[in-house]
Amino acid sequence: MYFFNARYTLKIPETETEITGAAIAASAVSAVDLDKRAQKQFDKHEHFKRRLLDPQLYMASVDPALDPDTTEKLAAYPWFHGTSVPEYSSGEHGTRTKWKEANRPALLANWTRTVPTDSASIQAAAEAAVQYQLKIGCDSILLAVPLTTIEDQSLETEITWMRAGIEACSRLGVGLPVYATVALSEAVLHASPLKNPVIHSFSNYISSRRELAGAYIVMEQSETGKYFWDAKDPLMACMVLIDDLHRGARKKVIVNYLGTFGVVATAAGAEIWASGYNLSQRRFSRTAKPGRAYPRYHSFATAGDIGLKDDLDKINEAGLLSEVITPTAADAPLRKALERKLTVENVPQWKHSQSNTTAAQAHYLQVAARAAATLNEIQAKDRCEWVYDWLKTASELVKKLETKKLVTSASDTRHQKVWLDVFQQWRDYAKQ
Amino acid sequence: MPPNPFPPSDVLAAFGGRFALALPELRVGGQGVVYKARRTHDKYGNVTGDDVALKLHLNSGQDERVEREITAMTNVQHPCLATLLEEGTETVSGRRSRYVVWALIEGEPLDVTLQRGGIGEKQTARIARDVVSALSAIWSKHIVHRDVTPKNIMVRPDGSAVLIDLGGARHLDETTVTATGATFGTLGYLSPEQSRGERTLTSASDVFALAIVLVQCLTGTHPTGGNQALLNASPPRPATVVPHVSTGMQQILDRMLHQRASFRPSLSELEREFEQMMR
Q: How many CA atoms lie within 13 A of A389 on its CB side?
């Protein structure tokens, strides 16, 4: 299933294929705004009827000097600084903006860049995260768990938080599926994936807790500018973890911030993958600053994005457009124009200019939702073959485009072979 | 046998004669002494008259192990686990010693049984069912035994089994393997994850060790002669090491010996499987 990785805006472009649900990131929307939406707006949007809230405790070390906006949003949630965050009351604070203005200095001043460490604070914070998700009507609970970094791989802190979350769910009588967050920094994943003790320890722990329905997996990428992750060992580690939990322990798995690698993860057993058009919706980074995006053409056939400045026009001139294009309602004007031998610049919705991303976003979401729906219809045993064919074809296609010098660095052409190799390595290992 | 640091006369005197010791000692080792005894009274003065194993521990670096076992056993009672009757500290032979009184288990350790050769499949299934049942009981408290070996399984005269020695037991949520970071357990029985020193061990590690014990029960010998390195490099394939047993037993052993902990069968599943095999 595909979940839209929700940011501040609730409304998303219409897609022909229904988007199953939404994963809301705490860093994208302040607690006070989310409260309002939970009360009045969620049920108006089809894709929000099934919703998850990622508490993002793993972002606790964000630097307020570099990213005050994100810090302020996160700090407004009670699991970062206990329950000292004043609740919004219209009578007392007036508008939500006034609440934010009044509390901004305190929120930033209290931001310690660490997670609570004493037992009582952890329990209170873990419970607050569960309560909040219940309050806004999430259909599963994602436990707040800190990031596993190269500096501390003992996992003691992570397990303490998981345990506190499980206990909180028990105290609150939670009847929803509960997922343990596994947030891993890329540095801990550059080890042999089949022998990585961090991966094994997490799968062992999660599989042993009956209270957990499964895991919510997030992996931090060190290269912040990439829309498509091409780090072989980390991606394979992800596949091994999913496989261990799904096939081994019969647990459910949700992955986020992997972009369309989510399709590959589905073949290994992930139940839900979440992503979105913007870079910040496709990969997780604690250090990247959000910027304004340019339109990118997502080509499912190449399992990547094609640059719109020159590349798509060159591909069209070479007569290869039909091989690259992934037709959707959103790209119809673009296709029509290119078929008439016009250029991208002639199509206002797709013109390569900053923030002109509405059509590109609608197109991406449709492609993602359609891929997920297609995989959903295929029997589990045939999914591997489908994904293999997709990656193999994509690898061959980008190689052809490169050989003919039709693509520049604006197009993503490096990760396809890595994904194919990872997938094949996983299939060999898992005998799938 | 090393010299006994707690001679019987000193023990009798220290406990005010409430233990009638049966000689010779059950075991004299580097960590202490175990006596078979008739306990006339418990430490509160209640008349008991039960047959017990009185274990006196030398006050050495083993204390943590003793305390861990006491903590684990205080929380769990099960017919396939040793029963802790009493524990305390007493001055014996001039030294303060921790003592533990266990209900006496008639029978012999499985390693002694196996010295006479392998046992049949049904008897193996019975031992397996009992040990799995004991592991389930401790696992319900999220405790991992970490040292399931033939030496730590007592076989009663009626063929039932009792899992003993929870000195290495660890709660799932304690992620540190040992204080020194070293791997705990007995070489030749360590699961791959235990062998790698992974931090989070679960009942799946005990399941792996039990599978090695069961292969030993069926063949009379350890599949790699006790060699852990060989075990890590090439885990035994039940179809080749125990070809004479039923396919059902081979399949379950195969799953128990899976390299990935999360792929091994759960204790409840194993309990059901072995129960059926006993019939």
A: 6
Distance in Å, alpha carbon of A52 to nearest chain B alpha carbon: 26
How far B176 CA lies from chain A's nearest CA (Å)?
7
Give the residue numbers spanning the domain of A302. 297-430
Q: B130, B147, B158, B165: which is the annotated catalytic residue? A: B147
Residues A259 and A342 in one domain: no
Backbone φ/ψ region at B188: left (φ over 0), alpha (ψ -120 to 50), beta:
left
Residues of A in contact with B269 (CB under 8 A): none
Question: Is residue B173 annotated as part of the catalytic site, yes or no?
Answer: no
Q: Is A268 found in the same domain as A301?
A: no
Q: What φ, ψ does residue B41 adopt, rounded to 5°?
A: -140, 150
Tens digits of residue pLDDT in B67-109: 888 888 888 889 999 999 999 988 888 888 889 999 999 999 9
DSSP letter for B262, please: G
Q: How many domains does chain A have?
A: 2
- Say which of A156, A200, A248 has its CB closest to residue B175: A156
Instruction: Look at residues A255, A282, A309 and tell me which one is the last residue of a structural domain.
Output: A282
- Determine contact, residues B153/B214, Cβ cutoff 8 Å: no
d(CA A325, CA A319) in angstroms, rounded, equals 12
Task: Say which of B176, B196, B202 has its CB closest to residue A208.
Answer: B202
Q: Cβ separation of B260 and A202 shorter than 8 Å?
A: no
**Residue-averaged pLDDT of chain B:** 88
A62 touches A70 (CB < 8 A): yes
Alpha helices in chain B (DSSP H): 8-14, 63-75, 110-114, 121-139, 192-195, 203-219, 228-233, 238-241, 247-256, 267-278
Q: Are A214 and A253 in contact (CB under 8 A)?
A: yes
How far is C-alpha A228 from the geometric centre of its chain's CA atoms? 12
- Whether A207 and chain B come into contact, CB under 8 Å, resolves to yes
From the CA of B139, how many Å to the nearest CA of chain A?
10
Number of C-alpha atoms within 13 angstroms, CB side, residue A141?
A: 30
Is A403 part of any domain? yes
The pLDDT value recorded for residue B181 is 47
Residue A289 included in any domain = no
Question: Residue A63: inside a domain, yes or no?
Answer: yes
Contact with chain B for residue A430, Cβ under 8 A: no
Q: Which residue of B has its CA nearest to A248?
A: B263
Of the given ranges (A313-327, A343-357, B188-202), which has the lowest mean pLDDT?
B188-202
Q: How far apart are CA A321 and CA A297, in angstroms?
A: 12
Can you tell me the mean pLDDT for B2-10?
86
Dihedral pair phi/psi, residue A182, rounded to 5°: -115, 105
Look at A33-42, B48-57, B253-262 and tell me which has the smallest mean pLDDT.
A33-42
CATH number at residue A218: 3.20.20
Across the interface, of A200, A247, A248, the residue whose CB is closest to B193 is A200
Task: Decide the pairing of beta strands B84-92 and A178-185.
Answer: unpaired
**Where a domain ends, among A282, A308, A341?**
A282
Q: Name the token pair of A85.
A: 């965050």
CB A204 to CB B196 under 8 A?
no
Taking CA atoms, B263 is separated from A247, A353, B185, in Å, by: 7, 51, 21
Residues A144, A118: one domain? yes
Average pLDDT rounded to a whole number, residues A131-135: 93
Nearest chain B residue to A164 by CA: give it.
Answer: B173
| pLDDT attached to residue A13 | 82
Give residue A28's region: left, alpha or beta (phi > 0; psi -120 to 50).
Answer: alpha
Is there a domain that residue A291 lies in?
A: no
